[in-house]
Design brief:
Two copies of one chain form a homodimer. With 342 residues, chain A is an alpha/beta fold. Chain A folds into three domains: 2-59, 434 Repressor (Amino-terminal Domain) (Orthogonal Bundle), CATH 1.10.260; 70-170 and 306-332, Rossmann fold (3-Layer(aba) Sandwich); 172-304, Response regulator (Rossmann fold, 3-Layer(aba) Sandwich), CATH 3.40.50. In chain A, 45% of the residues lie in helices and 16% in strands. In chain A, α10 links the parallel β6 and β7 (224-228). The structure holds a DNA duplex (30 and 30 nucleotides).
DNA sequence: AATATATGCTTAAACGTTTAACCTAGGTAT
DNA sequence: ATACCTAGGTTAAACGTTTAAGCATATATT
């Protein structure tokens, strides 16, 4: 109630109808550009347009949504909107959705499947027309439910192998595979991989790509994967790296599996006064411009984030329109060479 | 229509009412925990609860919003959600709003007042209950309109001097003032300031703080402010800095007015092989962890972004509840000392 | 015995749209 | 004259809630 009092009541179809002296139906037709189809008289059309402008009429989307059963809103669930990777992605999705006259509601799951499920619930209650989701570990059930209920969903950045949902992801296997190959070309042999401990495919694929490449380059015995916990990555990174550096298998190259890991890792490297690339070559994942500030600018695997964002919206729009073919896309990375590999 | 077909129709109050054999009113009361107040019989209460759970009933927030006239949604307009500063801010606001059972819809204005106005319109059409806005240059009119209409608004990061709206911002004057003072303490004399060309108070205050500090330290004749255009900052930064470095007033210290400017600036500095802090001391605004990667980790002015986010939500909630006292808050910065000032 | 009070439930309007169905008057074709 | 269209409108239901108002019945008060 307070809103109505405060905001002096917004003008509705009824107000226009009253002022023009017609029914709300006619006004609705005109507002929605159906005047031909619904055969509204030309003078009336003109009058309605005038009055609508005069009263500064804006349709109430809530009412429209209730009636139409669709809200022109999509829910976007990312791991953390404060993470620049997801921030960029969100921005692209926001713009692309706007082009389709859709609004985006963003939620951060913190890679936590309980939070993720709660977000999905909340967004469903708000009747979003579809979802773009960066799925967390263990959220198979809630995504599966969405798919079952035929709620339009597109997974992005990662997918769930046992859920038959649409997705658009990077070819992660190839990405790390080529990173290792690049290291090898630069003469590295003891290449270690710092990843998150996660059953999610994107991480598993990155690990698999690393392993396979190591094998294919006859470096199988030098394989060394550090899997850190998401929540404790920062705390353990220092120890993790120390361990790596004091072990009997001291690596000459380090591959980081994500943006955040690169940041933490570079800190550790800096603190340990390790020289890049002389003592150790480094490649990161999802690099961004700031990594150029590292004294030896970081060579990194670039994801086609723009394409990922745009396509995810495109696919979702298709699904919302009723196209039920599941779409599953793998995009290719680009290796951006700087100076951290010599 | 397609939604209803696809999603197999969500269960409504009516469905529960029918199954239990009561009116929807009773169900509504029970769902909303008004069974005491509205004197619903204990067995009926139990039955309704059971059936609700059994049918997995979730209230339709759209319908509720239409009826109640409030959506439990707030609109957040930032310059660019892909910018980490705003990403962090958005994240804090998201979490804080969730604690109050509010959902946030984020829009990016690109510092463009037309876009900003369009976003405000779109969010109003969606009947948001209030706004948190990072105002762009020239958007006074649209904000003023909101205030006039008594739509709850809180400006954040910046405010508009001729609009009497709630705001929570940094004491920008003091921030740059103390940065200059810090430079002076480190022995710098020819301190230059790289800012955006903008009439917005936050920028003007930063410039004023710089100027005043320079005056107060008897360095008035060394005052040098470079004001760059938002859209061309990256392009011009290089030239701008070159100019600075070849001019007859070559500075021995550089103060950047924002995060983005620091990034561009550090690039230029790196490209020009300028030694920090020997050749030039540097202080940034809104520094974040990645600046530690610069070969000489950046000393920066830290904004209490957490407090800014939380308080903005708190103030907005007050306003939505009907408290019409305008609240205007200035927060204090912290100077984080690293190595870029010697 | 009459009246008040409490209890437990129903009715129906309202929020602002959309839209199928219906109505009316004039004009055309037969 | 009859039937039939067409143009231009109205009516009212529906979307899913919330909530004021009303209606019984039973119990308590005088």
């Amino acid at each position: 109630m307070p809103n109505l009092v405060r905001m002096g009541k917004r003008v509705s179809l009824k107000d226009i109808a009253a002022k023009v002296g017609v029914s709300t139906a006619l006004v609705s037709y005109v507002i929605n550009g159906l005047e031909k189809e619904k055969r509204v008289g030309p003078e009336i059309v003109k009058k309605i347009r005038e009055v609508a402008r005069e009263l500064n009429y804006k349709p109430n989307q809530i009412a429209r949504s209730l009636r139409k059963g669709s809200t022109n809103t999509i829910g976007l669930i990312v791991a953390d909107i404060a993470n620049p990777f997801f921030g960029q992605l969100a921005r692209i999705i926001e713009d692309e959705a706007a082009r389709h006259h859709y609004t985006v509601i963003i939620g951060s799951s913190d890679e936590n499947c309980v939070k993720s499920a709660a977000l999905i619930e909340a967004l469903l209650d708000r009747q979003v027309d579809g979802f773009i989701i960066v799925p967390s570990e263990g959220c198979n059930a809630s995504i599966e439910t969405l798919v079952q209920r035929e709620v339009p969903v597109v997974l992005v950045d990662r997918f769930l192998p046992d859920v038959n949902a649409n997705y658009i992801v990077l070819d992660n296997f190839k990405a790390t595979y080529e990173a290792v190959t690049h290291f090898v070309a630069k003469g590295c042999e003891r290449i270690a991989f710092v990843a998150y401990q996660s059953s999610l495919v994107h991480m598993q694929e990155r690990i698999r790509g690393y392993r396979q490449a190591m094998k294919d380059h006859q470096l199988e015995e030098a394989i060394q994967v550090k899997e850190l916990l998401y929540n404790h990555a920062k705390d353990f990174m220092d120890n993790g790296v120390s361990e790596l550096l004091t072990g009997n298998q001291k690596p000459d190259a380090l591959l980081f599996a994500t943006n955040a890991l690169s940041i933490s890792g570079l800190y550790a490297i800096k603190n340990h006064n390790i020289k890049v690339p002389e003592d150790m070559a480094v490649i990161g994942f999802d690099g961004n411009e700031v990594f150029d500030f590292f004294y030896s600018p970081l060579t990194y695997i670039e994801q086609p984030i723009d394409q990922m964002g745009k396509e995810s919206v495109r696919i979702l729009m298709e699904q919302i329109k009723g196209n039920h073919q599941t779409v599953q896309i793998e995009l290719q990375h680009r290796l951006i060479q700087r100076q951290s590999c010599g």
